[in-house]
Amino acid sequence: MPLASDIAPRFAQTDAPLIGALVERWSPRAYDRDAVVSPDVVDVLLEAARWAPSANNSQPWRFVVAHRGSSEFTAIHDALMGFNQAWADSAAVLIVNIAETTDAEGRERPWATYDLGQAVAHLSVQAQHEGLHTHQMGGFDGEALKAAFSLGETLKVVSVIALGVPGDVDALPDALREREVAPRQRLTLDELVLRSA
């Protein structure tokens, strides 16, 4: 039984030396259904998110954390769409990432989703450091999640994280298995950076 962690090479082939957690980070879909991530470890990841930078130190991120087997986990999984439902139930934890788009005085927070993204990136890198993997998902019913967790109008569901330990690749549907073992690719810096003459 090939595990997601056995599919090589999963390390990023970087053009510059990066820290290990960034080189080793990737987003599996095959998770070990028996692996458990303790609440204490999840708290460490959330602490990393808590210390992310934000505009005016507004800290506009909020999270719903659900461990496999809980009713909250089921509610999040039920709100996932497409292929995400086919694999995310094997993750140990699902986390809903929420941006608070308006402050207490009703003023818009234009950078809230950007700031949330930084917090989630911190969480993801800390997860990798802890020997865990994350997979970000955008395919979900945001209104269903807002209703399930009684989220107010100022809160916007931006993404959902699957968190856990890589598992059996063969447990995935064929189309997802192919994506799981495909070589990792990125655009070059020359394609990404707009350089001045």
Automatic annotation (TrEMBL):
Keyword presence, Protein transport: no
Boundaries of every Nitroreductase domain copy: 23-71, 82-164
SUPFAM superfamilies found in the cross-reference section: FMN-dependent nitroreductase-like
Keyword flag Oxidoreductase: yes
InterPro entries tied to this protein: Nitroreductase, Nitroreductase-like
Keywords assigned: Oxidoreductase
Top-rank taxon: Bacteria
Family the entry assigns: Belongs to the nitroreductase family.
The protein's name in its UniProt record: Nitroreductase family protein
Species name: Microbacterium rhizosphaerae
Lineage, highest ranks first: Bacteria, Bacillati, Actinomycetota, Actinomycetes, Micrococcales
